[in-house]
Model the fold of this input.
Amino acid sequence: MTWYDIDGRPDFDIVIRGRTIRMECKNVRSGESPKSYQGDFRVEIQKTRNQLTGGPARGYRVDEFEVLAACLFNQAGTWNYVFVEASRLARRAAFPDYLVIMQPVPPRPRGVWKGTLAEVLNELSNGATG
Done:
């Protein structure tokens, strides 16, 4: 695993059996989540350094990383994460190649959200998607 602190690239490259899997890490938002999130937290996945261009370029395309790691600390007070394949995140109606900026995140593993990175990496390496 290689960590990067460089604008314009995902936070980590993970190499498994010769395949590089890119992972982006984000913190869930602090404060109260809107009622529309029905008890889930939310994570903002947009690029803060693309403020001048705005529009869809400020957001992430679905193919810019394979895994999103969401840190729950801002809501749960513990350094726990949940993980999801980027292809399973909500996409924008007007720009389907781009991810919705605010994504719901469950407070514990549920559905497509996994409790360990290994679970998501196993899905990706086995080709399980959908």
About this structure: The first helix runs from residue 73 to 76.
